[in-house]
UniProtKB/TrEMBL annotation:
This is Ig-like domain-containing protein. GO terms for cellular component: membrane. Keywords: Disulfide bond, Immunoglobulin domain, Membrane, Repeat, Signal, Transmembrane, Transmembrane helix. PROSITE patterns: IG_LIKE (PS50835). It comes from Oryzias javanicus. The chain crosses the membrane at residues 985-1006. It is found in: Membrane. Gene3D superfamilies: Immunoglobulins. InterPro entries: Ig-like_dom, Ig-like_dom_sf, Ig-like_fold, Ig_sub, Ig_V-set, IgSF_V-set/TM_domain. Pfam families: V-set. Residues 198-320, 338-464, 468-582, 590-704, 714-841, 843-959 form the Ig-like domain. It is a single-pass type I membrane protein.
Amino acid sequence: MFIIDTPTQSRKCTTSSYIRPALTKHELQGQPSESYRLLWFEEWSGIGMGASLRALWGVTLILLARLLQLCEARVNTEIQVGPLYRVVDTQLSIFCKASGYPVGKRTDFEFLVEKPSRPGVPYNVISSADPEFAFASHNVRVANQDIVLIHQSDSQVDFVIKRLLKEDEGEYECVSVSREKVLDGTFSAKAIVKVIDDSLSVSLRDSVTSMSFKEGEALSLTCQASSDTLQHTHLSVAWFLHKEGAQDPQPIISLSKDFTLIPGEDFKQRYKEGAVNLDKIGEATYRLDMTELQLSDQGQIYCQAQEWIQDPDRSWYSINQKDTQKIDLTIKAREVGPDMMSLVVKTSSEKTSLLEGQELLVSCSIDTQNLKERFFSAAWFRGDIELIRIGPTGILTVSLDDQRVEEGGLRAIRIADGAYSFSLKPVRKDDQGSYNCVAWSEERGSDGAFTKGTPQSSNSLQITISVPESGLSVKMENPTLNVNQLDKLTLGCKVGGAKEYLSVNWEYKSATSSTFTSIISLESDGVMKKDATFKDRQVRATRPESDSFVFELDQVTLADSGLYKCHVVEKIPSQDLHTNASECVVTVNPLESLMKVSLTSRSFNPTIGEEAILMCKVKGPRIPITLTWIKRESSVMDEIVRLSHNGDMSWTGNQKSYQVSVRSQKDSVIYDLKLTSASQIEKGIYQCSVSTFVEGTHKKLATSNDLHVAVKNPVTKFKLEPNPTIEQMINTDVHIKCFFEGSTPLYAYSVIWLLQRKTGFINIGSADKYSLVTYGNVAELNQRQRISMARTEGAFELVIRQAKISDSGSYVCNVTEWLKDPRGAWISLSTMSMTTNVNISEPKTNLSVKTSKSTELSINRNTEFTIHCNFTQQSRHESQFQVTWFWLKGTENEKAIFTAYRNSTLQSSFKEADLIFDHPEENKFSLTVLRPGPEHSGLYFCEVEQWLQSLPQEWRTVSKERSENLNVTVLGEGEVGYTWAHVQVPLIVTVIILLLIIGILVVKICRDKNPGPKKQGAGLWAEQGQPIRLDDH
């Protein structure tokens, strides 16, 4: 069986048709426009007829389902709608996109073109899949990237021709290349491109390359833009300002294609204020107006025109763009005074040399703050004579008594804010001279009257008037001239209208003189005659051409400043002698104003031991000079070295510390001063001074700026480590260490130990950089043997022996690091402090004193009782104790009855009874009262004092404890003693009986274990238990 394959141009789908995928380039070759293919399905051999029918039915169902699925076109290729009109030599960009392809796979595209000269013949242009796709007509441009395909996404590309040629016109076809075996839809789309000529023209009406304005003045520029094309296009015009240093130009204002004014971002506010505007005048003229220029407007300004066309998809596209030439716009700052009352007045004239009969125009400009809001008056002077005045309301006041006033030949007008003009015509010979303008502010009061401010005079303007009757005219090439001292003065004088022999006399008048004196003359026959006052000067007068004279004076001095006149004499045979002259104001600039000296250094902050080079740059006339190096420290100025113009060198400072050298450059001479090995001695403020020997005297020309040379100390790595608090017991040795790190053998170190008190710091002792130890005077540490200082590896140490409580406090260790610089001086690099807290404390006392087990004792007369005084703990084994027993009877004060001192001395003050003192063990003491009577009743207790040795010869009390009270009641004859124990008689009796039984049993057991006799332990001062009466000593 077979299926018919219909042509690819088919746009509709039925169940009996099948649309094949797009043919490749090779399949398209040799194929008719419509072709049919038979697809045979062969049966599998070996399958029976029934099976074949079932298989055929299954295949048919599958094909029907597939055809139904493909009835809707899945692939759609779109191209930018044409025709597209583009300008030759501009860029062409056409987008092409395809839909219906599997997602995630990039679609390849091909572009072909049919040219109008060969319709029906497609030319391969470019392919995103095949680099060799392009025909020879395009492959070079494709290889050079002049024609590119840019994928914007997997299913869209931009076809770009970067520079259109006329032959690029034609119908472009975009083909989306399918890699699928079975797909249907539209695989190509076409668009027509028309390439038109470039007819856009844009130019400035005024062919200027630079313009200069003052701040606040107005600028008006005109741009002409037009296009000569048959297509319907719109123009947009924009003015741009490219500021110096900015990367991109800034738009000032533009008129869009739909005739909308759009100010630039930086000019929006000025546009709102009406200070920036763009007007279209006529068909093709666009005028930019900026009423008040600002300093920020300086830069390059130009006009740009764009040509727009509306494509078939209704979008506007810029097909062409051109810029005018750039104008360098210079904005000069207004010269205004520091306050409201200050004025800056200037005069100017386009022509300062006139012939009799011409018109003289002199402008006067006024600059000040709030210029527009104020009133002014202006007056013009020739020399000291006032000619005319214009008031604040425009009223003229004429001071010149001349017929020309009545004829309107003398006028003054206000042109604009702060701009005035004076005119005089026709001018005469006696009108020449120095003209200037004087202006002042006028303050209007509430009554309308004006108050005159302080007048301010302008610069002078020299006006020369020539007499034309004789035909002889003389004109200085420069009416004013500046020349540098010691340079050559050259003056040129042009002669016009001369007929016969000419001679010249050069004359001079100083600023303090009223008459001219002759310098040199040149006769018509070439004879030169020098005046006697200039016989020692190099002066010449020449006539290089028939109509010009030249005057030369070598090595001008300051006294040569003044007015120079070129006086030309014409001798005409059989006629009168005609003369004419022209003057030139010569100013001699002093040498000190020409010499510029600057001092710089790349290493003006050297470290000790490093080099530093100071560079003194001298710019000015190449004359013999003397240069002096100067160093200033505080108020003392020292000369280091002097380099004379003849090559002599004179050292005043330490020659070993410096070196000098000289380098010559194109426009300057550099003098180097090298600090060979910097030390603190070389630090200070340096200058270089230039002088010369001129006109028989030494003259100081210029001094450089100050250059501060600060010699740095080396960066130190030395540092102190923090020290923990020292906690020690009294009578021990305290070692206070000041740990450090980063030390080096090249440096020396000193240390000072201080003890901080409430009143301030007390010097304990110090060790200088030579390790010389000096001890201070501290009352607590005045025993020399208690203090010592040392330096160990990595630490400074202070030792206090046999520490006291008073030695507690804050000990400060001040360590200074020292360096010996190249000049042998010791430099303190850094000083660091570290504080150590020292706490000296007593030993902890846990002394606990106990008496008898019972605090109540009731006995009969003559029955002895013992007061035990035992303590359980002590601070140290070397402690000694003093024990005192006290007796308190009724309301009487307590009374010491017996004391056992720590040195074994005993003292009794108890006369009423005999006492026995016993000290069987180190921590056990007892005092027994023999044969007491009722009068001995009362409270008994003991007090123990613990003593420790502080110094070899000193002891001190460290603790004191009292025992509990023993209440002793001694009964008289026939009395029964009751104590608290009788309160519950039956219970107590029972307990006593039980205790007696237990005691008898214990005694019996002990005797069984120790059958031998036991010796009675004797007291310290009693043998065999015999009492000893202690008398009161």
